[in-house]
Amino acid sequence: MPGIDKNSGPFRISVNRDARSGLTEQIRSAITQAIGEGRLKPGARMPSCRDLAAQLGVARGTVRSAYDMLADSQLLEAKGAAGTFITQYPPITISNSVPSVPSVALTPLPDIVCDYDTPPLTFQMGVPATDAFPASVWSRILQRHARSSATQPVCYPDPRGSLALRQELVAYLAMSRGVNCQAAQIIITNGYAGALGLICLAMGFRDAQAWIEEPGYLLACKALGLVGIEPVPIAVDEQGIRVSEGIQRAPAASFALVTAGQQSPLGMALSPERRSELLAWAQENHRWIIEDDYLGELQLSSRAAPALASRDSAGRVIHIGTFSKTLSPALRLGFVVVPLALAARFGDIAAAMAPASGAVSHNAVAEFLREGHFLRHLRRMKRLYAERMEKMMQALQPHFPQLRRGGLAVIVQLPAGIADRIIAREALAWDMAPSPLSAWFQRDELRQYGLILGVTNMPGDGFEQCAQKLRQLVDAHLPVVTSPGSD
Question: Within 13 Å, how many C-alpha atoms sit on residue 272's CB side?
Fold first, then answer.
């Protein structure tokens, strides 16, 4: 049904009983204008006469008369029990009765996300392998829970998310990430972004300062700025975030946002020494640590490091996890684990302002965990990603001498000042989506240039042709070196 409503929606019908024109004419005119302006699309299904009459508070015969007039004008087509539809080719021009207001549909965060609702491209980060997902097992589980949900009594679900999933996460986090918690400490969220938003709401961090890693996750930096938090970039080295620099640059920061398991995007784990420093800073100064468990369970080179929250004895770490990198970003499924002292407050905020999504996908993931499919899937993914990492390195090395591994990506170093953002944008035309390294830095004096190439999705013909094309794109932006004797 199109968005026809007398109060809201892209198409509004309002009826005025004091107007000179009759109610039937007002309805006919409003629908005609909406079709002409493109707000009602060809082929769209109209509400029934009964439904629209109830919405507008008029008699059903009034709406039926308007529909008949529109059908005579070849704008509507009645298809019996199937309903009434806008004709595919309505004979009408845009009405001039209301000035047309030009508008531009902007893609959210265009400097971070190249496009939405499209299949993953070669080198794209943050998207798991689409060719190795256990689709048949997942489909069977999901269908079973969808059918079960349809027969359950209608009720408001727990705003913290399905209890079944939260209980499975308690067991999974204890085993794989070393985090000991209760189901009441876990709130299911709409992905990582939903978790970060819930934390900012519950903790009241507005107008505060926060340490963020330099280089660091683009979305996190953008999100903090949008909610009125000042992100202070703190450099990372081979041991992770430099805690001493954070204390020097922003001693009054309310929290630190870190990727302790695998730094995003460089891939190193936060060293034991730095973990101790960071936890001591939070405990002694009554500060908070938000741990983004980015790829924590997908460590390719060695056993995954325990989560930072596993060492938190003072209740200062808020842990964020997500299924976007392990199962699918389409699930929009993440979770936050909060200290027990904060559980009631987070539950209240979730219930009032950010409740979890429906329980069907939650319960399906819970069963996926409970039956062991998730751990088996992770083991397969680690083997597959390790193989693809080696194949990508072999394809890139003849063309790019300066390479380094970074989590589930390969980082190609480029000369200072090279237009890596332009190269990344031009690569989209070749179905490649590298991320420009320079965009991950906030400070010009620390900025590095290069391309971050995700390894998860490999094209059918391998990485070799992509590596060659990438080399051509880079060469087109290298400065021309002239010989001393040339003019």
Answer: 0
